[in-house]
């Protein structure tokens, strides 16, 4: 493999919309999904990634190359991640979280999740619904009931209302 | 019920539940309880799930509650988030009484004006539970039995020989139970009347100039006497909980401290890296406050009467908070970078509570 021969091994990844990408094996194996394929010897030809589109895969590969170029310094990796995600819009972040989950890249997954959550912080319920395109499925009565339930300070043990 | 989609492209709500679970874990407890839970029913159900609540505790940032003793509702939460120092208020709850201790987001609130009626409170979810009368002190979590226990030294001023310890399991016990202290000498037991510190699975009683501490294993309910490291018996020790473990600091100079941490399982102390504050920044900030805001002209910090006391850790020793007692000025020393941040409390010459705390969605009674 790469380290033994001195020539970097390159893998070819295929997105679900049939785009092909070349990426150094050393960077691609940040994905546990891809690493397992490589270790099982299934990475000889083209690796099909059925759950990732070309636009997202291009972005993930940029991230793979960027982060694997940084030596073992967690602070620098963290600031690279922050910078990498800083200009991404919501839809891209949602696509990235799906891709990171499918590719089993826990650091990227964590960073993207945190980024999405950060946008929600200190925002009104209405703002979050609008921004995320979520339909309010509470009836007015249900919403009033939940608000009331959250409002009061109960003195006593809470009821077991979940399973 | 699941939320309906409005758009055909990937958006947040079309994500599978397990990914939405991951995303919501990153939100602070107050934002979940006061906001995200109302967005739609799926989010409400996700954030009420017991696994979610447990996982959320581990992701939340341990920080410090600061409470002004004469105006108990003026409590703020200090934390390091994404490498930066932050001060926030408790948006879902008004503290009515004095805070004593905290564990996994549950605080003990004590009404000193009303015979010390005490409560277990989760300020993020605006819930409180009355504790049986008589004692108030500390709370800790026994993870194997998945129960919260309130612990207190039981002092009787007229009978010092009866100094002991009582315990009450939240949601289980009807009244206080006595913890065995017969194996401890009277001299050893004397520190049971101090305010204990909570760590992961333990409650510790200490005294700044004592040669030992007392440690209660919250699971087994056994109290052990642990000597301080040799040579540190008499010197003044600032005991602080990181939330996870017990530490003490001793001053080496005006602005440098030795740090020791207790390995709770073995009772051994480990010496950590010394803390050395950047005196130039400290002096600069202090003198500027002195001129700009007419801070109490105690003494400049390089003068012998100033006391800069360590009062708590943020995010498991990422930063140390120090109080320029008795002024209103506090410093935040970020350990890795040695950067100094600072903030001001409400008033000079007042008493403040500093309690290690993390915000959580933990429910009372059933854990």
TrEMBL record, chain A:
GO molecular function: cullin family protein binding
Occurrences of domain SKP1 component dimerisation (ranges): 108-152
Gene3D superfamilies to which the protein is assigned, alphabetical: Potassium Channel Kv1.1, Chain A
Keyword annotations: Ubl conjugation pathway
Biological processes, Gene Ontology terms: jasmonic acid mediated signaling pathway; protein ubiquitination; SCF-dependent proteasomal ubiquitin-dependent protein catabolic process
Ranges where the SKP1 component POZ domain occurs: 11-65
A GO CC term assigned to this protein in UniProt: nucleus
Stored InterPro entries: SKP1, SKP1-like, SKP1-like_dim_sf, SKP1/BTB/POZ_sf, Skp1_comp_dimer, Skp1_comp_POZ
Keyword flag Cell membrane: no
Pathway assignment: Protein modification; protein ubiquitination
Assembly, per entry: Part of a SCF (SKP1-cullin-F-box) protein ligase complex.
Function: Involved in ubiquitination and subsequent proteasomal degradation of target proteins. Together with CUL1, RBX1 and a F-box protein, it forms a SCF E3 ubiquitin ligase complex. The functional specificity of this complex depends on the type of F-box protein. In the SCF complex, it serves as an adapter that links the F-box protein to CUL1.
Family: Belongs to the SKP1 family.
Name of the featured protein: SKP1-like protein
TrEMBL record, chain B:
SMART domains assigned: FBOX
Sequence ranges assigned to domain F-box in this UniProt record: 9-56
InterPro entries: F-box-like_dom_sf (IPR036047), F-box_dom (IPR001810), SCF_F-box_component (IPR050796)
A Pfam family per the record: F-box
Top-level taxonomic group: Eukaryota
PANTHER family: BNACNNG10540D PROTEIN, F-BOX PROTEIN CPR1-LIKE ISOFORM X2
Entry protein name: F-box domain-containing protein
